[in-house]
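pasting for ref
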Amino acid sequence: MLRLKLWTCVSMLIIVSMFLAACQTPTETVVQTVVVKEPGGEKTIVVTTTPAPSKPTDVPKRPNVIRANFGVGDVPTLDPGLAEDSSSITIIEETFVGLTRLDEVTSLLNPGMATKWDLSDDGKTYTFHIRNDVPWVKWNGSQVIKVQDCEGQDRLVNAYDFEYGILRALKPETASPYAYLLTFVIEGAEDFNAGVTEDPTGVGVKAIDDWTLEITFLDDAAYNASIVGLWTAMPVPRWLIEGDDCTEARGDRWIEPGFFESYGPFTLKEWIHDSVISIVKNPFWPGDETTPQSKIEEVSWLMLDQAPALAEYEAGNLDWTQLPLSDMDRIKTDPVMSQEYVVAPNLGTYFYGFNTKAPFVDDVRVRLALSMAVDRQGLVDNVTKGGQIPAQWFARPGLAGAPTLESHPDLGVKYDPEQAKTLLQEYLDEKGITAADVDLALMFNTSSGHQTIAEAIQQMWKDVLGINVQLTNQEWKVFLQTTKSKDTPQLWRSGWNLDYPDANNFTREVFAVNGADNPAENGEPYGGVNWKNEKFEELVKQAAVEKDPAKRVELYAQAEQILCYEDAAIIPLYWYTTPQLTKPWVKRTFSTGGNAQRYEKWEILQD
């Protein structure tokens, strides 16, 4: 009986083991021995079992990739000498590094490719000492590799590369949209850029040796080192653009995948025009405290309007995105997305510009009436809904030299519908026409957000002034060209984000003659605001070099009053914020400049 019971137990053990093996995914076969007591002694039986698999200890890791969105339209260019828009600048700032580099959060100036710089006694000549351990690289289709010269040696970024990049941006034939920024500050740059002289040795930019660059400025100004750290003053690969003994000249095509060479924390991996663009970590970027080696392997951007981008975000296909205005209320109350929603600071300004030489808006009364008819507070409360601040002038408070609402509450332009009606009626009576005869069009770059804002302001103009303003739009790259041309429309939408945190970067560099939105030939504007005011020019030049901070603010305040009220060359609308969504597994910084995020400081969390 004892033997029977023991055999019964063993049989059950074997059956159970076989049953478990049949029901489970095999993982590892285990051989066990069972000792059975029988009459006359013990007997050992071998039992083979397949135990239940243990729970996995390793959770699959998230891809170490940031997936983002740029907005509708292709990235216009990756050429530092030709870039002027936020999407282009974002890629360039991550694939190149200037002599200096702004902190994206604090806007403080840090070393970039220059480890230090010395100033002459008069404060006008800077000697930059450039690091000697940064190679040029490219993506070869499967990995990032170093670029080599005709002798098989690694090409290292040097002072001559910087000299070439700056002089190339200044050449008239390059037609750099940001060359003005260099002509305003570098000795001899204006004449060289205007074609007055073809001799580059007259420009105050000189490579002393491989690792030393000397730049001579027109004035002793605190922002000099910031300006030459911007993308327009970055190196570009001469051997690739012009060709050499072992490299075929690619000309303008040097920025395309397969050709593109850079040296920053990332380099270009893929660019499917009008669809997607990706950058990949550069393992040869040595990193430093300011610009560390990236923790992210790749950053990829789609090119979608904000509404479909939000749908991609909600589907888990994007890691961060900006928000469509139509969904702001829903996002703020959504139990999940409200926790991922952040309104980041943005030291920029949203505005409409006038072509001051175009029909109807060539009269300041019409321009000022249109500006006064905009209810800016209503716009930010009911349309944009992202904590923006109604703007009375252009240079955002918080910039060095910029007025503030506390110090200058009555500066600039405000909502005043009655005064707007009076100004317009005075114009209509003088011309012998009615409001119905005023034929105006506003152009914006294609975007549901810009359209929503334009439609709201269009309705304000109709309600207050009785004017029906037509709305038109263009794709981003084309729009940039149109609004800087002799065919600039009567009214056009724009925004300006800081390149460096000073009012000079706003009031002067955007609207002085030959500024970013006031292009000129031989000193005469032809596009953008198409505007010239000698008093304004005098004020912004004086403010640029004024050493007394209080006096400097007053000079910019006077200039802003001319720009936004007395001549009403623009309609300041609001000072930016950046409402956005970021997935909880992304650890990141938030750029206050709006132009460039520093993705090398971001991280994908695996917990």
